[in-house]
Amino acid sequence: MAEIAPNFSSSVKLKYVKLGYQYLVNHILTFLLVPIMLGILLEILRLGPKRSSSSGILSTSTSSRFFAPRFSSFSLLPSTLILKNNPKSVDFQMRILERSGLGEETCVPPAMHYIPPTPTMAAARDEAEVMIFSAVDSLMEKTGIRPKDIDILIVNSSMFSPTPSLSAMVVNKYKLRSNIKSFNLSGMGCSAGLISIDLARDLLQVHPNSYALVISTEIITSPSYYKGSERAMLLPNCLFRMGAAAILLSNKWRDSARAKYKLVHVVRTNKGADDKSYRCIYEQEDKEGKVGINLSKDLMVVAGEALKSNITIIGPLVLPASEQLLFLFTLIGRKLFNSKWKPYIPDFKQAFEHFCIHAGGRAIIDELQKNLPAFRRARGGVQDDAPPLRQHIVVFALV
């Protein structure tokens, strides 16, 4: 009798084989991906975070499709709106700026940051308010003086002369007294700061027990900001920057103890009668009718002559007797014996401990160093620390 075959369909073992087969087929993709993912993970750990991130970016970009139908980038071409028709003028200004000696602390007013610049009357007033009010606020904080204590007010700005004046603007801002003696100087160039000091001294001599507030500034955003192409008229745009200075003068005895400086001599030399001197810094229109300041080639020669005249006057007032005698003996020797003798240049370092040079440009400092040995050590970081601002630079160094 033949054996009866086992019923595999009802076998328990076959049941588990069937379940295993179904599980394997249903999860075969998972079984295949797990080793691959494990291998990728181990490779990432081996490469490190930087290289793994690069690999991830590369993997994503190769497994996906990205399209860039258009693109755009930042361009500096709009800057050609300034003098765009005359690139030579732009190159000229760049060369002047590179050799000007301007420090990193200098800046131009906000109106000059626009393309093209917007030297409007409103922008000029805003610049004047920011600079003048900041200087006066700082001075009042340092000295403890109140607005009602000020007896004399002098403000100078060569190029910007609005109506009402800048001095009236200060009176209105600080609500100064109705009997204050107020003056506004304009168009007086680089010497306006010291002219203001001279005026304040004269007024203090006839008004005892008084305070004089002197404010010196130059407004770059003036309507005379030059937008043409004449090189002699482009120089002021390159050389001068924002700034203002305020100084308090007093003839009260109680201020002598706390005063930082004492005003001893003020010597002015006026060369306006000479035609070259009169036109060396001249506001005019160019061929296209654009207004600007023309700096003549004779400027340094004129400045040198004025400096010699000024030193001739101030020398006897400040030099010691030994230097004055040497100068006198040399002068007599040239007159009586040999006119080819070199004139004796007094050593002004015996009269002054410090020199404050008008840093309107590197050429001015170089010219002073060339002609006056006493100024050779004085050169340094004046232009780096204080922005060239025409007339107020000397007052700036004192504040």
TrEMBL record:
UniProt xrefs under InterPro entries: 3-ktacl-CoA_syn, FAE1_typ3_polyketide_synth, Thiolase-like
Q: Which domain of life is it from?
A: Eukaryota
UniProt keyword Lyase present: no
Q: Which GO terms describe its cellular component?
A: membrane
Set out the biological process GO terms recorded for this chain's protein.
fatty acid biosynthetic process
Molecular function (Gene Ontology), one example: fatty acid elongase activity
Question: Known catalysed reaction(s)?
Answer: a very-long-chain acyl-CoA + malonyl-CoA + H(+) = a very-long-chain 3-oxoacyl-CoA + CO2 + CoA
Q: Which UniProt keywords are present, listed alphabetically?
A: Acyltransferase, Membrane, Transferase, Transmembrane, Transmembrane helix
Q: Does the keyword Calcium apply?
A: no
Q: Could you tell me which residue ranges the FAE domain spans?
A: 86-336
Q: Where are the transmembrane segments?
A: 20-45
Name of this protein: 3-ketoacyl-CoA synthase 6
